[in-house]
Design a protein that fits this description.
about 260 residues; alpha+beta; Jelly Rolls; five-stranded mixed barrel; 3 helices; globular
């Protein structure tokens, strides 16, 4: 009898050890399961870009823990949506491991999808040349629980787990090139442009602290699409290309008549 009890205890310890090391969230923060504050939840964004028909976040899981991103230019960031009453600002920082050299990209507030990626309703976007050799992302939230959170959990000192810090950002690799219309100028005079984000990733944030059990752990407070972007032909290049095609068409017509 004692032998079976000992084996049971060993099995239980091994199971707990596996769970600890498999859990991407320190201190047992659970996977995203809540769908509690309206559209867009993470699964709504998946359905939009992948044509899936998820009805909750559970099948999607927790994404990957990508804390640092490699350089390469140009990058594009498109704001997809948010479910936060706070004013949230996203950006990138170039001093990995420190998080003091920050560049804001854009600020947004409110609830819902911020566009649908069409010419008539493009997403707000920013492009930038990524720092060398690598960089990280951050979110600054204003309001009652104002703080700045980083893609590197140990930098989240305002909401710090005693060992490694809390993970406020999730990354979901869509493994697909996504073509959308974006507005790089906001309400400015520049017309929307169509861009193709190569091997796009969806980044989602939790903007409330875990300490004190304030967070709802939904990770949909700000959702954006990121990736390296295929080159966009300049108007002059398009004009030359068009002229060349017209010339070739004329030459082919003359040869056909002969």
């Amino acid at each position: 009898m004692k032998k079976y009890q000992i084996l049971s205890v060993i099995a239980l310890v091994m199971l707990l050890s596996v769970n600890v090391y498999a859990d991407p969230f320190p201190a047992g923060i659970p996977p995203v399961v809540s769908n509690n504050d309206g559209i867009p939840d993470i699964y709504n964004a998946f359905n939009r870009f992948l044509g899936t028909s998820y009805t909750n976040n559970i099948p999607i899981g927790t994404g990957v823990n990508r804390y640092v991103w490699d350089n390469g230019s140009p990058w594009v960031v498109a704001l997809i949506g948010l479910t936060a009453g706070n004013s949230n600002t996203i950006g990138y920082y170039s001093d990995v491991g420190s998080g003091t050299v920050k560049t804001d990209l854009f600020t947004a507030t409110g609830f819902g999808f911020k566009g649908d990626g069409t010419l008539a309703n493009p997403y707000l976007a920013r492009s930038f040349d990524a720092p060398t050799p690598d960089f990280g992302w951050y979110l600054t939230t204003a309001g009652r629980n104002s703080a700045t959170y980083f893609s590197e959990p140990p930098l989240n000192t305002s909401d710090k787990n005693p060992v490694t810090g809390y993970d406020h950002m999730m990354t979901f690799d869509l493994n697909k090139d996504i073509t959308i219309w974006v507005d790089f100028d906001g309400a400015g005079p520049e017309a929307p442009k169509q861009v193709t984000i190569l091997n796009a990733s969806l980044i989602t944030w939790e903007d409330l602290p875990f300490n004190g059990n304030v967070s709802d752990k939904d990770y949909d407070d700000m959702i954006y699409l990121v990736g390296k972007v295929a080159p966009i032909p300049e108007p002059a290049t398009m004009l030359l290309l068009g002229s060349g095609l017209i010339g070739l068409a004329g030459y082919a017509r003359r040869r056909f008549k002969k």
